[in-house]
Structure formats: C-alpha cells, structure tokens
C-alpha cells in the first residue's frame, strides 16, 4: 500500500444497499456531511447488482471484515448502520470514513480515504464474511484458524458409528 494517488478499485453493491445508503447519506446531519459526500461518491461509482448477485466475498452491510492499515495493524470489524454501531463490539458505522471506504470492496483490494482528522489513510481488505457470518478465529500467533469442515464432519460421523445404533422405535 503506497501513499501515491491512484485510481479507486472497482466496487460492487446490491441495489437494496445502494438505495438505503443513498437515502441515509442524502439525509445525513451536517456533522457528518464530509462522510456522506464520500459515501455518495462511492455509491455513484459502484457497479449495482441485484441483491442475490453480490459475490459472497464482497463487503456488504452486515459483513464482517478483516483489513490491514498502512501502518501494518490488522483489525476486524462488522459494517453496520449508524444505530447499530458499537466500537467496543467491533461494529463500525457506514457513516464513518472507514465504513464508507470499505463498502463494496473485496479481499486483495485497497483504498485510500480521508480520516476524520483530514489525513489520508489507506487500508487493504484481507478477508470478508457474508452478512451475518463471523470471520474464522485468529490463533494466538495471529494466524487465521482454517476450519476443515469435511474433516470435522468425517470425525463426527466416525464417532457416531462407534456409539452403536440409535434409539429404536419400540
């Protein structure tokens, strides 16, 4: 991630999120006018698709996101509407500079944005969950734990075979 100015990455957003967020930004209070303007700019350049056509790896409202800042810090957040925001729970509002920057991005993409203090910042998306799903846990060494669901199911199936037959209909 460099500090050089470059073209913003392509983004994708559902028609539903686009309509809701455009209304939210257009009705935003004066104190968040700069963020609202940035959000509108992002929405205007987005590729708009039907609700079920947004790829699972693209940040939507309700997505859990892991991103890396230009200083190397990695953060996990969930992108939410302003009334649901709770920084202690990692829920950040779409009406923040980071929230407006994240919408529509996918892993591997990065974007520069103006922070509240006016300084340019850059972040890169590491991973994204579908709305309502959590990201995989991070191990103590900072690595993401990869869950092998096929192996887990096979182990569960083997364990249930060892227990003998289940209840009978007597």
Automatic annotation (TrEMBL):
Domain Regulator of nucleoside diphosphate kinase N-terminal: 9-49
Gene3D superfamilies: 1.10.286.20, Transcription elongation factor, GreA/GreB, C-terminal domain
Occurrences of domain Transcription elongation factor GreA/GreB C-terminal (ranges): 56-129
Any matching Pfam family: GreA_GreB
Protein name: Nucleoside diphosphate kinase regulator
InterPro entries on file: GreA/GreB_C_sf, Rnk_N, Tscrpt_elong_fac_GreA/B_C, Tscrpt_elong_fac_GreA/B_fam
